Amino acid sequence: MGKNNALHEQDKDAQGEKLVTGRLQMIPKDPAKEFKRTTLAAGAVLWRGDLSDIDSIEVACIHRPGYDDWSLAKGKVDPAESLPVTAVREILEETGYEVRLGKLLGRTIYPVLDRTKVVYYWTGEVIGGEFAPNEEVDEIRWLPIAEAQDIMTYDLDREVLVKAEKRFRLPATSRILYVRHAKAHEREKWAGDDNLRPLEKKGRRQAEMLVPMLAPFGPDRIYSAVPDRCQQTVAPLADELGLDVIVDKRLGDDGLIDDLVGAQQAFMDVVNEGGVSVIVSQGLSIPDVIAWLSANGRLPIDIEIKAKKASVWVLSFNNGELTGADYLPSPLPVR
């Protein structure tokens, strides 16, 4: 996208692009370097209502007095933040609402002065809080999606709402946060039982940073494969949420190798519990299980299924079938 010093935030439709197509969304390894001068931001389509009745769903339309426009809640990334962390912080600061993140809808891209602004949007169910007018947002209107599209100032925001409506019409009855363990000490330098190989310094930091990134999805339960590095990866999150870690050999590489069908059934048992579950696993299991879910679900995945250390796949299911997948490559700050 070329440089254009005449374009500002309120001109974002002029040369904007929307990348909100498809139920498979992948954040780049280093999103801040996607363009020469990138400004990263994140937000959400705030919603309330009952997903079993699409007519009951209302979304939040945000009025910004500084621009005199109607848009979606969003804001720029602060240092030390991952994109989901930015989304929930900015929403709380702008609107006073606490949200539970859901599906990553994609991103919009547009030039602002000599930079390229990239905004990632999730769905965000309001679970608490209260709006009070402030300098950034002086009014919020809760409207059905069709009316919200009419009031929005920008076409890019309307397209995000169109994508959100599609997700609401096929809602997630369960969601899995499928985490690969954080960076551990090198296998070649570890003489003991491989299951006892612990996290190294970077891995411990990754584990700590997973807490603010995963907590906004509202996990109900946490599972881990047997290796200590898997359990150590999720220990800070479990401590923060006050949840026990359920250890199951079938959810790791050894379980997959020993009994493929049993490993697949163990994963589906978690899916069928409903709600949001965390599963911490390993580099062999994660791509294999996701490929199997894709082949037997409603979401074709015909690209390489990545699983970097401490990465997260946010998998959405409708009545046991895979319907959406979002890849978050790292919990570490994006700037």
What is the strand and helix layout of this fold?
Layout: E1 17-19, E2 24-26, E3 38-48, E4 58-64, E5 69-71, E6 73-76, H1 83-95, E7 97-112, E8 115-129, E9 139-143, H2 145-151, H3 155-169, E10 174-180, H4 201-214, E11 221-224, H5 228-241, E12 245-247, H6 253-258, H7 260-271, E13 275-281, H8 285-295, E14 312-318, E15 321-328
Parallel strand pairs: 2-15, 3-8, 10-13, 11-12, 11-13
Antiparallel strand pairs: 1-7, 3-4, 3-6, 4-5, 4-9, 7-8, 10-14, 14-15
Helix pairs in contact: 2-3, 4-5
Detailed description of the structure:
There is one protein chain. The protein is α/β, with parallel strands linked by helices and 335 residues long. The chain has two domains: 161 residues, Nucleoside Triphosphate Pyrophosphohydrolase, CATH 3.90.79; 155 residues, Phosphoglycerate mutase-like (Rossmann fold), CATH 3.40.50.1240. 27% of the residues lie in helices and 31% in strands. It contains eight helices and 15 strands. Strands 1, 3, 4, 5, 6, 7, 8 and 9 form an eight-stranded mixed β-sheet that branches. Strands 2-15-14-10-13-11-12 form a seven-stranded mixed β-sheet, with helices on both faces. The radius of gyration is 20 Å and the shape is globular. It starts with 16 loop residues before the first strand and ends in a 7-residue tail after the last strand. Its EC number is 3.1.3.-, 3.6.-.-.
